[in-house]
Amino acid sequence: GRSLLNGFRAVNHGVGPCRRIAEAVDAPLFARTASPDCRLTHEIMYAGGYTSCTAGPIVFSLGYAKDYPLAQAIECWQYSYRMMGAYHERGVTMSVEHYLPISTLVPQSTSMACVILDSLIAAAQGVKDISLGIGQQCHLAQDAAALRAYPALGRHYLDAFGFNDVELSTVMSQWMGGFPSDEGQAFGVI
């Protein structure tokens, strides 16, 4: 008797309502999806004026759909990335943020490898603006090291594969795991 869906159902609403939202705000709109196959969602949201997304075939397959074939996820995301590249070729810069949504459960090195692989797949399809997402692990030394290592390694690998023209930035998300029930300890995590 109640809807279990959350968020804005772009596919159900279509391009028109997405466009009305884009025209009503003076800010970029971010398509936050969680699927190894976002092709239809991206088509509608980008046509409606959204210019950014989270994602990637590796990070989203591992984080949300472990039984979905990785090769198929890569093909689906290549389509979405190529669409972003086509928008860029027509003067509309599209950006993507790659992060491992299960980052609280894996070492930074594993998360970094997944994020960089997704970034290489995106760059190969023409995406020119990529953010490397870092999940806070609540170990200050490791988090500080990740903030330095992600952009350095990301730039290294993008350049090594000839993607020197890709703009690269980093984003750190706060801790995504459980917070202590003690208020002082919770503020310590923050």
Describe the structure.
The chain is of the alpha/beta class and 190 residues long. 51% of the residues lie in helices and 12% in strands. The protein is built from 8 helices and 5 strands, in the order H-H-E-H-E-H-H-E-H-E-H-E-H. A 5-stranded parallel sheet has the order 1-2-3-4-5. The longest helix has 21 residues, at 140-160.
Q: What is the string of helix and strand elements?
A: HHEHEHHEHEHEH
| Largest sheet properties | 5 strands, parallel
Which residue ranges are poorly predicted, with pLDDT under 50 across at least 5 consecutive positions?
Answer: none
Question: What best-fitting shape do the alpha-carbon axes yield?
Answer: globular
Helical content band: 40-55%
What's this, in brief?
By secondary structure, the chain is an alpha/beta fold. It has helices at 10-13, 15-24, 39-47, 57-64, 70-89, 108-124, 140-160, 183-189, and strands spanning 30-31, 52-54, 95-98, 129-135, 167-173.
